[in-house]
Amino acid sequence: MNPSELRSTLALAGIFGLRMLGLFLLLPVFSIHARGLPGGEHALWVGLTLGIFNIVQAFFYIPLGRLSDRIGRKPVVLWGLSLFVAGALICAARDELLWIAIGRGVMGAGAVSAAISAWVADLTREQVRTRAMALVGGSIALSFALSLVIAAPIYRLISLSGIFLVLAVLGVIAMFVTYYILPTSKPEAKVQQASLKEVFFRLELMRLNAGVFVLHATQVAMFLVVPRLLEQAGLPLSSHWQVYLPVVLLSFVFMAPVLIFGEKKQRLRSVLLVAIALLLLAEFVFTRATSIMTIALALLIYFVGFNLLEALQPSLVSRFAKESKGTALGVYNTTQSIGLFTGAVIGGWLMDSQGDLSVFVMGAALLLCWLIIAWSMHELPAKVVDSKDVVAKA
Q1: What is the pTM of this model?
Q2: Does the N terminus or the C terminus of the chain have fewer Cβ atoms within 10 A?
Q3: Predicted pLDDT at 393
């Protein structure tokens, strides 16, 4: 990437990661904190409070993504970040499940992930876009790793309300970055945009949308259980980061060469299938995980596959829907949010009714279905070679 592409991608990755931090910071501590709140003894209610962030997003991704195609990315992103800040302040105001749920719903209404992903596509050439999306996907994994490291110490120091205040401050910083550092993008060129129906029913996009639903449904359900597994294995909550941080960092070491190989050899479909298979393997390892080392191994396998998919899928969406990137990524992020909500709710219900390990069985079944769907993918579209690059090589 050239300096302009790298600067813009890093700024957008930071904003994207901030929004995901709003989700991830709660995962390591919320199920334990909620036990002391009215209704917190029911895992289903805890799952609903976690998942409402995502189901509200699902209603706004498509209209905001389509709006960003028409009026530009910057105003849409600024509006979404302002709602993120307002929702965080509501969550901080009252330590009750109901108020936390309302605040997280407001945070979710600022659904700008589709606009951000489309903005990355606007500001990067197609031949470097997968790498740019990998940086954005990496910001998700890094925000997840960071949340696992800092959530428990921050929780002990400033409580859950303090965590939401920190998120509000970070949201304001992100607004300044959006306004002053990122270039103002122009609306999409006046070409015939695909209709929402056409984008939704495009076969390759449907496969990718199904995939992101399964990816995030299994993720949030899994992390309702993993903190409990670690505690049962003898590792207190305050020490969970000692497993999470090295696992996530190692996953980048293993993931990077696989992604580079897939790009150079034009074998991204194979990389996609391998990544899904890794997630499936991780779910099976979790069902046998009783020691800290076994849990860490399952997490490592999981995050290698997760990071690969977070890099590949949004890039492929932008390539399959060049004329309506905001709309297509809006549909993609909508199914992602529905997956997060579904995973939280069904995962909580399964924990209540069938026990913790049933969550991993459900995850394995969903991932197997995804692998079958993805297997029939056609060859991916070839990258467009920039004419300037051809001249430079000559």
Answers
A1: 0.74
A2: C
A3: 41
